[in-house]
Amino acid sequence: AKASTERGHLRYLPQMDQDAGEQARLGAEMRTALDEGQFRVFYQPIVSLPEGRIVSVEALVRWDHPVRGFVSPAEFISVAEQNGLIVELGEWILRESCAQAVAWRDAYGEKAPQRMSVNVSARQLAEPRFPELVASVLASSGLPAAGLVVEVTETAVFGGGRTVQAVNEIHALGVRIALDDFGTGHSSLTLLQTVPVDILKVDKSFVDNITMAGRHAVIATALIMVSDGLGLMAVAEGVETAEQAAELHRLGYRLAQGYYFGKPSPEPEFDAVNEAVRPG
Ligand code: C2E
Ligand code: CA
Ligand code: CA
Ligand code: CA
């Protein structure tokens, strides 16, 4: 959407109306989608680079719309944030992914992913009862707290209200906290001094050109040093090639995620991991 100002008045361009109308339509359809079960959770593997096996998965919501087909979360999560439905949708995602984690533990035993990573947005975190909700979902699903990771962005944590307190309470349950999109404008070093972060998710933008000499490898190296120095785990995001995986491994990264290892899917192949995810 683009807008320009003219003599102090905000002038809306046609594109903006289209976006606003589109967002309003999506928002209106979301209620029905929740009631009719049009949302799905897909899971993307996070792998150990030294061992070449899946150690955890990230839950990523999908909207399987009867008419529009697949709607990207990049589109509808912000709409759900604005109309507040993210609270209900987010609770459903949390319940669904914790139940799935327990089902995999039952089915695969030691081969099941050790941790389930769930994205939590600003509005959810700001809900006064959110830490209680996490505790009660863990209890009802039977997933140990150590088996859950809550992924937050800096924007969400500094969203105001009691969000910082909420992160502390969730961490106190034994749930791990991951800082998403680390290194981008959504996340900086300040947060590391404010909330108990366990995992840094190094943004795809630093991984993209890592095999070319230059800035990207420098930043990726600096970020793993920060992570190691603070005793945190780093996950390199958006790894698409064997060369990137090998280079990240060489730089000292032990965890990675990306299309090279597996796209988000309803059920990653935990059995075939040793062949499928071995880097480089
Ligand atoms: P994110 O949390 O940073 O998730 C990573 C995104 O990168 C996902 O997009 C994933 O499919 C994509 N990705 C993973 N590996 C690769 C790769 O190798 N190459 C490329 N090009 N992309 C890769 P997705 O699923 O479309 O989600 C987009 C964003 O929507 C997420 O970014 C997150 O901010 C939000 N989102 C997704 N699911 C949820 C959810 O359940 N709850 C909340 N609150 N937000 C969610
Ligand atoms: Ca994430
Ligand atoms: Ca991310
Ligand atoms: Ca992102």
UniProtKB/TrEMBL annotation:
Domain EAL, residue spans: 23-278
Source superkingdom: Bacteria
Name listed for the protein in its UniProt record: EAL domain-containing protein
Native source species: Paractinoplanes bogorensis
First-to-last residue of the parent protein present: 461 to 740 of 747
